[in-house]
Structures are given as C-alpha cells and as structure tokens.
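Before a colleague's protein record goes any further, I have to sign it off. Thanks in advance; the entry in question is below:
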Amino acid sequence: MITLDRATKKQAALSRALDLRIRKPVPRAVVTWARDHLGLPQSDIRRMKKLYDKVMDETITQEESTELDGLLEACAAMDLLRARMVMDTAGKAKARRE
C-alpha cells in the first residue's frame, strides 16, 4: 500500500515540485499514459473505500485515520501531477497555434 511520510521537509519538497512549471512540451503519448495510468492501485482504492465506510460509521481508529490521510495525500498528489502535465501541454500547444 502507498503511504506518505508526513515529515514537514518532505511535504515542503512535494509542494515545491508540484509548483514547478514543465519547461518542455510533454509528448501527447506521455500525457495520455499519465491520464490513464497514473493513480492509486485498485487495492488502495478499495482500502480507501473501506476506511471511508468506517468514517461514516464512526468506527475508524486513529491508525486507520492516519492511513486514510496518507492515501488521500498520495491520490491528490498524483491528480495534481496529471493536471499540471495536461494544463502545461495544452497551454503550450495553444501558444504554438497562435
């Protein structure tokens, strides 16, 4: 299962990495692959759903809550990376057409 260390230095490094602009156009095939394949494994998604059910039932433990936070952070980071790649590539393609 994917988990993220919640150390402040690692969070700061991830934030800086997500804020970087992509300097070269990303090939369309890479953007397509990232959109279709960059994400949590199905086993982690199923685990996240089980943990959500425990949240709704108010039976989640502190350890499970920490696990869910890590899964959510990993999922959000991958979503941001995919979005950044698609947005930068689309913006550069539009600029070339103009």
About this structure: Residues 1-5 have pLDDT under 50 and may be disordered. The chain has four helices and no strands.
